[in-house]
Structure formats: C-alpha cells, structure tokens
Design brief:
The chain has about 375 residues and is mainly alpha-helical. It has three domains: about 1-220, no CATH class; about 225-295, no CATH class; about 295-370. Helix content is about 65%, strand content about 5%. The chain has eight helices and five strands; from the N terminus they run H-H-H-H-H-E-E-H-E-E-E-H-H. The strands form two sheets. It has a three-stranded antiparallel β-sheet, with helices on one face. Helix 1 (about 5-35) runs parallel beside helix 4 and helix 4 packs antiparallel against helix 6. The relative contact order is 0.13. It comes from Listeria fleischmannii FSL S10-1203.
C-alpha cells in the first residue's frame, strides 16, 4: 500500500491547474485594462488618465468576481471527485495489505463502518472548501491592490518625467508580472504564489485524508505500530524519521514513540505539504522494503528540486512579460521577451539533463481558457 510523491502530484495537479488558469485570467484582465487607451496618457493628461482608470475599477472588480465564481465552481467539483478517489484508494490499499495478514493468521478481521469513512472525507472536504474560499477572497483583494499599485507607479513615473508613458506602463506591468497575484500573504509578509499555495492546500488535504483513513482503520484493528514511507528529497524535519517503525501508543519497548518524531510540527511528518504516508506495521508479517537515502543524497535532491521550481517560476514570469509586450504592441520588446523565454527554457533543459531530473512542463505553462 502506498501513496508515492509522484502520485500526490498527479492527484493534486487538476485542482492546481484550475487555479493557475484563474490566476492567469486575472493577470491578463488587469494587463489589458491598463494597456487599453494608453495613447491617451501624456504628461499633461496623467491625472485625467488616472481618474478614468480608477473609475473602471468597479467594472474590473465585477469581472474578477465573475471569473473567480466560474473557476471556483469547477474546482469544487474537482475537489469532491478527488477526495472520493483518495478515500477509495486508502481503503483499497489498507484492505489489500490487511487481507493477506488475516489469511496468514496474523490478525483477525474486523467489520468496517463505511459511514465513518465517508464522514471523515466530508470533514476534510469542508476544511479544504474553507481554504479555497480564503484563496478566492485573497485573489480578489490582491488583484484590486495590484491594479491600483500599477496606476500609482505609472502616474508617478510619467508625472515626474522619468519615463515616457509607454515606458512607464511597460515597467509597471513587468513589475506586476514579477510579483504576481499571491494567494496568501502570511504573517511574516511572505507572498505565496497561487500555484505554490493551492498546491500546498491540495497536496496536504490529499495526504491527510489518506493517512487519517489509514490511522482510523489501524484503530479498528488495534494496530499500534506504524511504518513511515521514505523518498529522496524529503524535508529536513521529515528526513530523520522516514523508513522507520514507530509505536503510536508509546508502550512498546522495541520501537520508539511516534510522538517523538516531528509529527505535529507544520513542517514535520504529516505536516503541511508533507509527502510521506503511513503504513500499518504487523510484526512478523509486514516487510520494511523502504530504502532510506543518506542525509547527503537526500539534501542534494531536495536542493535540486527547489532549484528546479525556481527555474520554472522564471519561465512563467518570462511568459507573462511576453504577453505584456504583445499587448503593448511593441515589436522590439516582443522579440526581446521571446529570447528571454527561450533562454530560460534552455537553462532548465540543461539543468534537468545534468542532474538526471524529470522536466515538468505543466509547471512552466501559463494556463489560459480552462472554463
């Protein structure tokens, strides 16, 4: 039984893509609004232009809410389908493992209450629904802030004579492309991109359902020992515990207490964005076939993965800047932007080849027209 990191990505991707489509729709909506009627902007008319653009904010906000409602409806259906799939997988994986143990006399069969499985799934679904609703509200708020910030930057640059109107708009929009529309601004002021935060929510929800269903079934069978999965590139607070057996009750003399791991820490085992899963361990029956990578190998893969995400973000940013250049109808800037996209694609192509990684094209795309 297993829920491998690659499977987590595959299961989570449809929901992440919906929100990537949404974020890009909002981005393009703002760019087009700012670029429209830019020929009316001069140093002498800068205040009139600013007022006119501010007056459009109500309509812009209405369009954004409409887009978010469309994509939100689609994401809710996808999340519901996803959670049912994961619940079924957890049941199938657990039963496949436990049935063999029952047949060999290691454990006795116990009646499972399906209603409990569905109840847990629905509880996680409501929790996730609340998280996605928060993302939706944040996207609206941050999009409005981005729109007004762009206007202020353009007006300041033109009014002071530092840049021509076209230069000011181009510079402000490219700054917007670099910053993006965050789905979360945390207490430390870190801006979480839509892709990163929705991926965290979705992946964490999927893994939580799978693992909690497993733990509940272990309770049904009075199985105290748990085996933690293992993979390369594990996070620092997870790596020391992977591939090992723990006792959930703390009563065992042969195995350490599960509560002594990083379990319960946001960045620890089964925490936010964790890619580990739990397996019931039955002494004499369950085989621990996990190969635990050395700390050096694990750290290397983790760092390489983080660097690959960095290259992917740079490609998406370059594609946004290319869209801006096309919208502003500047042939020279379009040509330059295309070269930047090509150069960054070459960078990641060389990087994944040199480090024997898998290129993830879906993370380099700008999603458009999903709904």
């Amino acid at each position: 039984m297993s829920l491998e990191p690659q499977q987590l990505e595959i299961f989570s991707q449809p929901v992440v893509e919906i929100y990537n489509y949404l974020e890009n729709e909002l981005f393009q909506l703002i760019v087009k609004r700012i670029a429209n009627n830019r020929d009316q902007l001069t140093k002498d008319t800068v205040l009139e232009w600013q007022i006119a653009k501010y007056n459009e904010l109500h309509e812009v906000n209405h369009q954004m809410i409409k887009e978010i409602a469309r994509y939100s409806q689609k994401s809710e259906k996808e999340v519901s389908k996803l959670f049912k799939t994961i619940t079924s997988k957890s049941v199938y994986d657990f039963d496949a493992h436990i049935d063999k143990a029952i047949q060999q006399g290691y454990i006795e069969r116990t009646q499972v209450n399906r209603a409990n499985l569905d109840s847990l799934m629905l509880a996680f679904q409501e929790q996730a629904k609340s998280s996605y609703a928060f993302v939706n509200q944040t996207l609206i708020h941050q999009s409005k802030q981005a729109y007004t910030r762009i206007l202020d930057d353009v007006v300041s640059s033109v009014a002071t004579g530092l840049y021509t109107p076209d230069q000011a708009i181009s510079q402000a929009l490219n700054k917007f492309a670099k910053q993006g529309i965050p789905a979360l601004v945390d207490k430390a002021g870190k801006r979480w991109s839509t892709d990163s935060y929705v991926r965290l929510i979705t992946r964490s929800s999927v893994n939580n359902i799978y693992n909690q269903q497993t733990l509940n079934r272990m309770d049904d069978y009075n199985i105290d020992l748990v085996l933690i999965s293992s993979h390369t590139g594990a996070r620092p607070l997870c790596a020391p515990y992977q591939g090992k057996i723990y006792d959930r009750t703390g009563r065992s003399k042969n195995y350490p207490d599960f509560r002594e791991t990083s379990y319960g820490h946001p960045a620890g085992i089964l925490g936010c964005n964790c890619r580990h899963h739990l397996l019931p361990y039955i002494e004499g029956f369950t085989m621990n076939n996990f190969v635990v990578p050395s700390p050096q190998e694990n750290s290397k893969v983790y760092e390489l993965t983080q660097k690959q995400r960095y290259y992917e973000r740079r490609i998406r940013q370059a594609k946004k800047e290319l869209f801006i250049a096309k919208e502003l109808q500047n042939d020279e800037t379009v040509a330059t932007a295309k070269k930047v996209v090509s150069r960054r694609q070459k960078e990641i192509r060389v990087f994944v080849k040199e480090n024997d990684l898998t290129r993830m094209y879906e993370k380099e795309k700008l999603m458009t027209k999903a709904v």
